[in-house]
């Protein structure tokens, strides 16, 4: 394993940021630390980088105990949400900075920088200042600078959080392709579920300083360990006492299949290619069902139509709890 985090705890005064967290991050993989703001994911990343000291536990990087090592001794590249560029230096000099302070030969620096600028598609902007780049270009420059020193591990703290939605999507695709080319062990922090599901090989869900679940995107989405993971990784609605995905529900009309819970359509909302149908069941429960446009048109339903709701076979579910139960329940231990 490239990174072993063992029983790491961290407090800030009375606030428990991390509560005995243990995670194994495989070598060469792209791993996301996913969770809500304040859940502990950035603190964990900073402890791996050596920018914070853990109160308890240890961190191993490539089999070496790095717990007490300063950041410069860990061979870790770090990219923050804010680009932290040297404003007075050109793009080329920004990328070369880490190599220059390590006093690498000039020919080696020039060759390495040229390779990285081509890799991140910035070779034509090599002589520009950071202020002359777009936000996405500055973030690619920051990634090139972090990769210049050939780190064992690349750590990204919400690297695309300050960018608009279109640029974030483009950079997500680019990061996935970049990782497949360079194969450096990469850990990135995000609170964006779509980003984690789209980019990561493995996701670590962190909440209230604890690990809720570890697994591939498919494992977490299809087999959530608990209610928190299911709610956090996608839309949910409630059918009886079960939490289900709205797109895993099926509707039928009175002339069709009579299996399922009876109710009436109370609202229909179109959002792009999706149709969201709100159904009030005969027992008073409100259920949201997501259909494609073609599915909706085939049913021929509208507001006040009588329908039946049922769960598609093999769909993930978890038992719903009340708000009071959720507040009182401890987080579950990690599963893998």
TrEMBL record:
Its EC number is 7.6.2.9. The keyword Nucleus does not apply. Keywords: ATP-binding, Cell membrane, Membrane, Nucleotide-binding, Sulfate transport, Translocase, Transport. Residues 314-336 are annotated as: Disordered. It comes from the Bacteria. Residues 3-233 form the ABC transporter domain. It holds the Pfam family TOBE_3. GO terms for molecular function: ABC-type quaternary ammonium compound transporting activity; ABC-type sulfate transporter activity; ATP binding; ATP hydrolysis activity. The keyword Ribosomal protein does not apply. CDD domains: ABC_CysA_sulfate_importer. One of its GO terms (cellular component) is ATP-binding cassette (ABC) transporter complex. SMART domains: AAA (SM00382). This is ABC-type quaternary amine transporter. It comes from Micromonospora craterilacus. NCBIfam families: 3a0106s01 (TIGR00968).
